[in-house]
Amino acid sequence: MKNILVFSGSNSSRSINQKLINFAASQVAGYTINSIKLIDFELPVFSEDIEREKGYSINLKMLMNKIKEADALIISVNEHNSMVSAFFKNVLDWLSRLDRKFLEGKKILLMSTSNGKRGGASALEYTKNSFARFGGEVVESFSFPSFSENFSEEKQSISNELLLLGFMDVLQNFLHQIEQ
Fold it and tell me: Which of 21, 32, 45, 165 is deepest in the core (most CB within 10 A)?
């Protein structure tokens, strides 16, 4: 059985990207799902001085092991001011210093959401390009617009029927891709 690691790029306790990830994980059957929160792997702001003086933290190595153990990843990135969040960028900086190709051989479903109509599309595009440099293959992506209007907090589900159908199609295509 394939292992799928799922996480959001957010450090917010009320993250809508975490809610989207939780929903995605709930829709996957027949796979081992390992859901983590990046905030549990505390990392200082990247600095070459820290890297040189202290090396790589146990938290970074534990996170790297989680990624290495996974056959595939489902990630939802948040957007701050039309860019990936500083928190997530910092995580990528540390991971790529430990192993430049830390995503080598990983198939990825990359998602983003925001309360805006673009659904975090700028952060999604930035991350998609970054993941290729780190050896990852984004086989599917999904930008979920206007989160508060299209997601039911009560049901923890996508409430917009058309978006739900689109999401399920993307998810099924991703699952099909990781079987190949």
Answer: 21
**Number of domains the chain contains:** 1
The strand pair at 137-144 and 32-35 is best described as unpaired
CA 91 to chain centre: 11
Read off the pLDDT of residues 32-87 as tens digits, 9 standing for 90 and up: 999 999 999 999 999 999 999 999 999 999 999 999 999 999 999 999 988 999 99
**By the 8 A CB rule, do 75 and 63 touch?**
no
The CA-atom distances, in angstroms, between 44 and each of 48, 76, 88, 93 are: 11, 22, 12, 11
- Where residue 126 sits, what CATH number does that domain have? 3.40.50.360
pLDDT of residue 180: 81
Whether the pTM exceeds 0.90: the reply is yes
